[in-house]
Amino acid sequence: MNRRHARYPFLQSARQAVQEAGVDLATIVAEDDAVVERALERVTKAVTEREVGEPARDPRTELLSYPVARVLVSLVDENILVRRYAEAEATTAAERFTADSDDDEQFASVGNADAVTREDLLREFDLADHVRSAGDGFRVDVATYLLLASSVRGEEWRLVNRPLADGEVPVDGYELDTLVQQAIEERIAEGLPLNVPDAIASELGEEVGEVKTVLSELDLTTDIDTVVPDLFPPCMKNLLERVRRGDHLPHHSRFAITAFLANIGLSTDEIVDIYEVNPGFGEEMTRYQTDHIQGESSPTEYTAPACATMKSYGDCVNPDSLCENISHPLSYYEVKLEDADEEELEDWREEGDSERSEESPEASGE
Ligand code: SF4
């Protein structure tokens, strides 16, 4: 286990080094406090700072903290944590390899055994044969580009917004590093959450509790309770619009929008208020249905249908580029909320509040 493995624990060679050292994870979590502490820091910093903190001085501790961190993430078992953690590890790795690549250019004759450059990572992820230098930049095979760029946020990454020549997409160095970062993120998220044996899980109860506290303090898991219709997925915007237009919705569509609104935190009263504009609205039915979905009049709390179900009922309308990377309307909304900055959300909340007070006769003194 060397420093290179410690700095880039997702490399195949790092995984192999851990295997060859015959490390028993159950013993590590039971006996090696330094490793567990660093693993906990990796995960909590991923949540709070979107990076994984300063590496431990001892390469063995640093390297072993990576599999333990993956175990912690798995035990907490929240989608948002898996995403944040993989993103943070990949961001840290990208910072390191860009610094290593710069050093490599500067000290080309000396070499640095701990460094990992862009070229090393292209080989690691079998990308070297699909990327070639071209003038100041690079060209990436279109299939490879699509595979990696489809998960990168931003319209500029969509193929329709890119020049395409001879089956290749031109990118600059920074963009290529972003694609490599994406490959790292995918490898880190691969297999998460893991199935964790009870012997390991029982040793990490306290740390799992700590991660859950950090998550709840940041309110990430309940972020989705913020109601910003501008950020709703196209399918739900469409259904909401149809409700407001007074259209008669078939049962599956009405269930989909009601469950979605309930899942993002609207109360039965608020949903009833929204539906009231619809002439086909029946207050009693809406209350019954909403309470049922929310689990108040039934033992189950229902979740809005996934994209596959929405598609099969014809409720998936105008899917956009983000839709290609999610499988549930709630995930779409979650990603949008996460991408929106706090100021934007504040503006939306204020807009929503003033719209509500204009609509409400009591609030406007009518
Ligand atoms: S893909 Fe999913 S989120 Fe997007 S519009 Fe269709 S159902 Fe909605």
Automatic annotation (TrEMBL):
Residues 339-353 have a biased composition (Acidic residues). GO terms for biological process: DNA replication, synthesis of primer. Residues 226-327 form the DNA primase large subunit C-terminal domain. GO terms for molecular function: 4 iron, 4 sulfur cluster binding; metal ion binding; nucleotidyltransferase activity. Binds 1 [4Fe-4S] cluster. GO terms for cellular component: primosome complex. It comes from the Archaea. The keyword Metal-binding applies. Its cofactor is [4Fe-4S] cluster. Belongs to the eukaryotic-type primase large subunit family. Regulatory subunit of DNA primase, an RNA polymerase that catalyzes the synthesis of short RNA molecules used as primers for DNA polymerase during DNA replication. Stabilizes and modulates the activity of the small subunit, increasing the rate of DNA synthesis, and conferring RNA synthesis capability. The DNA polymerase activity may enable DNA primase to also catalyze primer extension after primer synthesis. May also play a role in DNA repair. PANTHER family: DNA PRIMASE LARGE SUBUNIT (PTHR10537:SF3). HAMAP family: DNA_primase_lrg_arc. NCBIfam families: PRK02249.1-4. This is DNA primase large subunit PriL.
